[in-house]
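User: My collaborator sent over this chain with a note saying "see what the structure looks like." That's all I know about it. Can you take a look?
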Amino acid sequence: MKNTQDALDLPPRTKLRLGEIDRIIRKHRIIVPPPTRKTLIGMCEDGTFETVGTAPTKMGWLVFEDSFLKWVSSLDDS
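Assistant: Without extra context I'll predict from the sequence alone. Here is the result:
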């Protein structure tokens, strides 16, 4: 029999480092030229990307993949 914790156990949300976001933007030519690192950091700080915490972690900024994909999708919607 499953307990409540097992029933509510959800997989963790995938997180991307800014370097990976930069690589994806370049590879798929989402924006040409791609945003600078300073611009990407600003997008973390202003809430454009949903991040782990409100400041960089020991591994730098960690952006939730679904919020990055939402931003990419919003570029085509405008």
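A starting point for your reply to your collaborator: Residues 65-77 form the longest helix (13 residues).
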